[in-house]
Each structure stands twice: as C-alpha cells, then as structure tokens.
C-alpha cells in the first residue's frame, strides 16, 4: 500500500514540477534562452504572495490575483531590460546575465527575509484530503495543484496551436528575422512569452510554498527540477514536460520509499542522467525529427 | 626561443608577410612573470602563515578563473557546475589520506582523479548544448553533493576535517601548502599556455570566435572541447584539494556550493572572457573585494551579480578585452600577429 501511495504522491508532485517547468520550456522554445534565474524568480513570487497575504490580510489564493499580474509585468520588463539586450552578445550572454540575476535575487531574498524558513497556509485545503481506502488518501491541496498544472499546460498548448498569439510565437521561434518580415514584432512576442513564463513561475512558486516550508536558498533547486522535467519529457513539447515532471516526481517519491528520504532527490538526478545516456531526445520527443 | 616564424616556410601565398608570436611586451612580461614566481616561492621565508594562507586563497581563485575561462572563453562551454570537481577534489584528498597516502601527494592525485571522472561525465553532459549543458553540469554537482551528504563515512552533511597534516608543525604545514598551491598554479597555467599555443590552441581560438565556422573548416570541435573539459576538471579538482589542505575542514554544502560558479563567472567576465590575462586580473579584483567585503554577507554577492550582469551587457570582452582592443597589447603570446615585411624594407 505504501508503494501505491508513493506512486500517487509522485504523480501529484510531478504536476507541480511541470508547472515550474512550463515557463522555462516556453522561454527556451520561443527565444532559445535558458533562464537560470527561473527558480529564483519563482521564489520571489512565493515571497510576494506571503507578503501580500500577511500585510493585506488576504488568503494566498486571493494574493495571487495581485502577484500574478505583477510577475507578468516583471517578466515583460526583464525581457526588454535584460534578456533581449543579452541576446545581442551571442549565445553565451543570456546564460551569464541570467546567472548573475539568479545570484542577485537569491542573495537579495536572503538579505530581506533572512535564512529562516517560512510557510504559506492554504487554509482549509491544507488539511483536507480525499480518502480512497483506509491507507491511501490524496491531500486536497496536492490534487488542486495537479489540476491547475494540467489546466495551465493544456491552456498554453491550446494557445500555442490555435490562437493568433500562439502562431506568432511559433513563427518567431522558427525564424525571428523572417517573422519580422511578415509584420511580427519579435521583441514584443518575446516579452509576452517572458511575461507568461514569469506568471506561471510565480504560480508554481506559490503552490510550492503551500506544499512545504521554504527559504530564500531554494530557488536553484526549483530551477534544476524544472529543467530535469523539461529534458526528461523532451524539449519542445508541453505535454512532454508534464510527462517529464511526473516521471521526475515518481523517481523522487519511489526513491524515497525504497532507499530513505535522503535518496529522493538523488533518484531524480539519476533518472535525468539515465535519460541523457539512453534517450537524450527525451521520453516524449516531438514528432518532427529534424537534423 | 625563436620569436619569428617566416610564413614562407609553410608555403603560404604571401611571402612578404610573417607571423609574429612574441612581441617586446610579451617577452618582457614573460620574463617578469618568471621573476615573480621565484619571488613568490620565497614568500614563506619572509612572511608568516597568515600571509601565505591568504595568498593560497588567491592562487585557488586564479586557478579557478583560468579553468572556467578555458571552458567558456575557448571551448564555448558555460558550466555552472564546476563545483562538482572542486568538491570531488577535496573529498578525494580525504579518502586518499584515509588510505595512508601523504596529504600533499594526495592533492596531486585528487586533481588527476577529477580528470578521470570528467571523461564519463563528458559523455553524458556533452549531449546537452548551450544553456542545457550549463544546468546539466549543475545537476552533476548536486548529485555528487547529495552522494557525499548521504555517505556517513565521509562525515555526511556535517563535513569532515583533515587530520593527517597534523604530523607537520603548523608553520611547516602552511608553507608546504603554499608551495603545493603555487606549484600547481604554475603548472596549470603553463599547460594552459602551451595548449593555447599548440595546434589545438588555434582550434580552440577558432571555436571561440565561431564554432560553426570552425567545424566547417575541419576543426575537431568535440575532441578539442573534451580536452579542455578534462583540463578544467583537473584544475578545479586541484583548487578544491588545495582549499581543503588550506582550511583543513570541508562540508558538502560549502565545497559543492554554486557560489564557486558565481565567483568563477564574475572573475572571468570582469577580467575578460577568452583572454589569457583577463581572468588573472579578475581573480585579483575578486580577491581584493573579498578581503574588504566578505563579512558583509549577502550584499557583497548581490554586488558581484550586478557587476556580472552589467559587464555582460556593456563590456562583453571584460576589462582586459577592452585594454587589448584599445592599446593592442598582448602580454601572454597565445595569439598570432601578421606583420608585413615590405613596410619595413620600404624604409620605415
């Protein structure tokens, strides 16, 4: 029974990883930038929700209504102020600039909020659970997070394949210069992608903060999990990212069940390296296999 | 030291041109460096352990900067996970000395061991490109940190201290540590220098300037990258091992910390990515900053990050790159300068 429980927990945890990963995946897909500050930016979202909830007296869910648009605006501005200028410096510059950003944010959070652990209360959801049998129950919060993750990834997928904005993003991703020839403002498309990426990151960060306690040093770990989900699932497919997130979550919870809590994350890393070794295009490689 | 290679010897179509490698500036600088190394070797006779301990820290920074520059500046490999090898280097010293090997010999062996580890690692992470490689290396570093943390025989998460060097008196130990660090620094810089002057160095500088173009004219890109990755692993391993014998204590969280990557990136970016001299300059600057601000906690790291961003955006070749562009100076002769012989015969 404990094994079934581990599997269920792993799948639900995977939803959260996929939510962390979709913004990373979107930015990489559209502008070939790997944002090394993704995890730290997500954590900024977590802390902002905490601050708004505490000082305005809102529930964290209500605070999201303020923080998510804020995160989107920050993403939009970061694109114009940092990501686009760094793209001009060649392939390596965005990496260096976003790593610098990660160091700045991580340490600013440490200065402002100290190294103490914090937590976000999700109210009644925190303790509620659905009982499936005498030994298996699903926490309501984990279930809600998983549901939201599917909605967000599905929504992004629909947006990319069926809307004007989605077509513009795919065109810009394929060839920004040609897209501009037919009247697309590539910089704006990039900025919108960054805005969406940051909003999803802040959402994931908030859910992360509701699930477990957090402190300012955890940003890089979220980046790594998100990245592992993207690579395990296969680059360039949002459903692949969901599968990758779930695979990573399963590896962690089953690993913890089998070898003890200290090995949970190790097993996730090992799965990632195994995928690199044996199936480097990812489990869920996109259909078009181009050179 | 033949300073001038006539181009005609290689049947180039322009016999009136010659390729110059050594210049007066670089000859002077190289001789000065030789003198400086001799003077540095004498430091333990003149100064106490507090000076040599600080200088050892500086040597570690210079090694790290040079290695990260070799990776990113020449092989185009941006890694935020070189702390994997720093940590393995340090813990390898612990394991080797537990098996009765002399502590200072263990430093050298630990560095070589990191080179061995780097080969299978490269097989995996070289499947990733650009930013994916960067995080992939970070995963590798995290994996090793967790493996060490879970290993109680290595002290687990609380770390372990190195006791075998207690057979030396503290003054002797510090002096030997200093000499080992200086020797490794000199050897690694020399290897880097010779590598860059070799045929492989020409390949690497071509990869630095344009990887695709280099590949299209037959530069063995992957092999060149693997050799640099190996060298960087050995260098970072040496840096970790030296850090351990300098501080005598190691914890997985500090030795595998991503802060090392932040330091490396700061030094190389500020000094000048893809130049030989720049990272040394960057290391000196970071060393100075650390002496001044290290106790100010996170603010100083915020400052390092801000400088890294600003330099990336506004001064992408760093301080030394700017100096080279402005004054056409090269102190370490790793490049080629083509000069016309005709101009000279025309009476100039």
How would you sum up this structure, described in words?
The complex is a heterodimer of chains A (291) and B (348). Chain A has 291 residues and is an all-alpha fold. Chain A has one domain: ABC transporter involved in vitamin B12 uptake, BtuC. Chain A is built from twelve helices and two strands. Chain A has a two-stranded antiparallel ribbon with strand order 1-2. In chain A, strand 1 (129-131) and strand 2 form a beta hairpin. The radius of gyration of chain A is 19 Å and the shape is globular. Chain A starts with a helix and ends in a 13-residue tail after the last helix. The relative contact order of chain A is 0.20. Chain B has 348 residues and is mostly helical. Chain B has a domain at 40-261. Chain B has a three-stranded antiparallel sheet. The relative contact order of chain B is 0.17. The chains are: A mainly alpha (291), B mainly alpha (348). Chain A binds chain B through residues 28, 32-34, 36, 82, 85-86, 89-97, 99-104, 106-108, 110-111, 220-221, 223-224, 227-228, 231, 262-263, 265-266, 269-270, 272-273, 276-277, 280, and chain B through 72, 76, 78, 80, 123-125, 127-128, 130-132, 134-136, 138-140, 142-143, 146-147, 149-150, 258, 261-262, 265, 269, 273, 297-299, 301-302, 304-309, 312-313, 316.
């Amino acid at each position: 029974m404990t094994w079934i429980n581990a599997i269920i927990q792993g799948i639900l945890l995977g939803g959260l990883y996929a939510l962390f990963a979709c913004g990373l995946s979107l930015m990489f897909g559209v502008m070939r930038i790997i944002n090394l500050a993704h995890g730290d930016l997500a954590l900024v979202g977590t802390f902002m929700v905490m601050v708004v909830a505490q000082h305005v007296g809102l529930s964290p869910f209500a605070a999201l209504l303020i923080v998510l648009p804020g995160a989107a605006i920050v993403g939009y501005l970061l694109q114009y102020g940092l990501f686009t200028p760094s793209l001009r410096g060649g392939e390596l510059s965005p990496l260096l600039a976003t790593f610098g950003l990660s160091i700045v944010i991580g340490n600013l959070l440490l200065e402002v909020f100290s190294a103490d652990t914090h937590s976000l209360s999700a109210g009644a959801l925190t303790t509620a659970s659905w009982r499936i049998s005498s030994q298996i129950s699903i926490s309501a919060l984990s279930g809600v997070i998983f549901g939201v993750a599917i909605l967000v990834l599905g929504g992004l997928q629909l947006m990319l394949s069926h809307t004007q904005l989605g077509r513009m993003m795919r065109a810009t991703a394929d060839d920004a210069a040609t897209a501009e020839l037919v009247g697309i403002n590539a910089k704006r498309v990039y900025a919108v992608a960054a805005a969406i990426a940051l909003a999803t990151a802040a959402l994931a960060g908030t859910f992360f903060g509701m699930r477990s306690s957090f402190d300012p040093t955890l940003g890089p770990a979220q980046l790594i999990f998100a990245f592992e989900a993207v690579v395990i699932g296969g680059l360039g497919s949002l459903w692949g990212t969901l599968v990758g997130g779930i695979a990573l979550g399963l590896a962690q919870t089953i690993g913890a069940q089998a070898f003890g809590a200290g090995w949970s994350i190790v097993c996730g890393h090992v799965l990632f390296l195994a995928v690199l070794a044996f199936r480097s295009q990812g489990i869920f490689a996109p259909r078009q296999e181009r050179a | 030291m033949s300073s001038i290679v006539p181009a005609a010897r290689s049947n180039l179509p322009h016999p009136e041109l010659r390729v110059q490698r050594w210049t007066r500036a670089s000859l002077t600088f190289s001789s000065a460096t030789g003198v400086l190394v001799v003077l540095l070797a004498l430091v333990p006779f003149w100064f106490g352990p507090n000076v040599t301990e600080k200088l050892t820290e500086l040597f570690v920074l210079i090694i790290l900067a040079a290695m990260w520059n070799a990776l990113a500046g020449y092989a185009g490999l941006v890694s935020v996970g070189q702390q994997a090898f720093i940590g393995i280097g340090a813990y390898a010293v612990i394991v080797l000395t537990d098996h009765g090997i002399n502590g200072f010999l263990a430093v050298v062996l630990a560095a070589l061991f990191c080179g061995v580890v780097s080969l299978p690692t490269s097989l995996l992470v070289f499947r990733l490109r650009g930013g994916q490689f960067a995080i992939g290396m970070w995963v590798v570093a995290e994996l090793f940190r967790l493996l060490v943390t879970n290993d109680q025989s290595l002290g687990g998460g609380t770390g372990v201290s190195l006791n075998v060097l207690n057979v030396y008196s503290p003054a002797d130990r510090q002096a030997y540590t200093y000499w080992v660090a200086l020797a490794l620094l000199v050897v690694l810089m020399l290897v880097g220098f010779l590598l860059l002057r070799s045929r492989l160095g020409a390949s690497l500088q071509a990869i630095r300037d344009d990887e695709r173009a280099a590949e299209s004219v037959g530069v063995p890109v992957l092999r060149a990258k693997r050799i640099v990755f190996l060298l960087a692993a050995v260098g970072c391993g040496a840096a970790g091992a030296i850090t351990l014998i300098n501080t005598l204590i190691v914890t997985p969280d500090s030795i595998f910390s991503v802060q090392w990557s932040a330091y490396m990136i700061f030094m190389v970016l500020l000094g000048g990515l893809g130049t030989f001299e720049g990272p040394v300059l960057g290391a000196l600057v970071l060393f100075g900053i650390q002496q001044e601000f290290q106790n100010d906690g996170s603010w100083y790291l915020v400052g390092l990050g801000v400088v890294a961003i600003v330099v990336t955006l506004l001064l992408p070749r760093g301080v030394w790159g700017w100096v080279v562009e402005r004054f056409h100076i090269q102190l370490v002769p790793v490049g080629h300068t083509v000069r016309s012989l005709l101009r000279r015969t025309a009476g100039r």
